[in-house]
Design brief:
Number of strands: 11
Structural class: alpha+beta
Number of helices: 7
Strand content: 15-25%
Mean pLDDT: 78
CATH topology of the largest domain: L,D-transpeptidase catalytic domain-like
Largest sheet: 9 strands, mixed
């Protein structure tokens, strides 16, 4: 009888301890991690290996996550931030066409553009646009958006046809007799380059339309001779090897090109010569010629 009563007392005490422990565990886990953690902790208290693994049942239709008791909860994923972008500019460096011609004329009317009207948005036009933007308190980005374009149009008169398409630069009629030209220059469209006379002549179907002084490669870097064709044009080219400006470049043989040279314009033939290119010192002339020459046109370099 005493043994039975003792067993009953022990069993009752054990039940009370189990209940108290269960309550304490559930309370602690709820404070640390919520219902899922509580379910996992109950499983631990029940003796299931001392931890909760992925896929451990935590109740009907619920799976307990893998997380140690006391670890910080995983941060919530941040929402994507969308930055609105401005529409593309109406004009920017590299643009060309009628609108660029109008832009150049209007900037010239305000005294901000003093180069030839070409319809190409290059470095000179970009500098002029920045000056106008700065005068209006706008960021000098050299990009034309509708607001700055409307402002410029309101300030300046409508360009005339002659302003948009100015006549080619005046030059002295060439005195060269066609008979002295290389025979290969007599047909088609040709950049006819005479090393003896140190001139470049633009000849179309046997007629000389333009003649300009030319300078050639220095000793050891002589300009190639023979028949070639223009394979690439770049209005605002800069040499990647010599870091030299080469405006109005018309390439005909490897890295050799016909182009304007500021050094040739400044010191003439007293310089040592080019790195193989055909240098021209007439800015107006080469600017006009660049717009006439097309890729595929012949280039003849010869001694007369």
């Amino acid at each position: 009888m005493r043994r039975g009563r003792l067993a009953g007392v022990v069993s009752g005490a054990a039940a009370i301890v189990a209940v108290v422990c269960g309550v304490l565990v559930a309370l602690a886990v709820n404070l640390l991690g919520g219902p899922s953690a509580a379910a996992g902790s109950v499983a631990v208290a029940a003796g299931q290996g001392g931890g909760v693994s992925a896929g451990t049942p935590a109740g009907p239709g619920v799976t307990a996550p893998v997380r140690a008791v006391g670890s910080a909860p995983a941060p919530a994923a941040q929402a994507a931030v969308l930055t609105p972008q401005r529409n593309p500019p109406l004009m920017a460096q590299g643009s060309e066409g009628e609108d660029v011609r109008e832009l150049q004329v209007r900037l010239a009317h305000l005294g901000l553009f003093d180069a030839d009207v070409t319809g190409y948005f290059g470095n000179v036009t970009a500098t002029s646009v920045r000056s106008y933007q700065a005068s209006k308190g706008a960021e000098p980005t050299a990009e034309i958006y509708q607001d700055i374009w409307s402002s410029l149009q309101a300030e300046t008169p409508e360009p005339t046809e002659d302003q948009l398409y100015p006549p080619p630069p005046a030059y002295e009629p060439p005195t060269v007799v066609l008979g002295t030209l290389d025979a290969r220059c007599a047909t088609g469209r040709v950049l006819c380059i005479d090393k003896t006379d140190q001139v470049l002549r633009w000849v179309v179907n046997g007629r000389i339309l333009l003649e300009m002084d030319a300078r050639f490669g220095r000793p050891g870097m002589e300009t190639s001779e023979g028949q070639f064709s223009v394979y690439w044009k770049h209005r605002d080219h800069v040499s990647s090897i010599y870091e030299a400006d080469m405006p109005f470049s018309m390439f005909f043989s490897g890295g050799e090109a016909v182009h304007y040279s500021g050094e040739f314009a400044a010191i003439g033939y007293s310089g040592v010569g080019s790195h193989g290119c055909v240098n021209i010192r007439d800015w107006d002339g080469i600017s006009w010629l660049f717009d006439q020459v097309s890729t595929g046109d012949k280039v003849i370099v010869y001694w007369s």
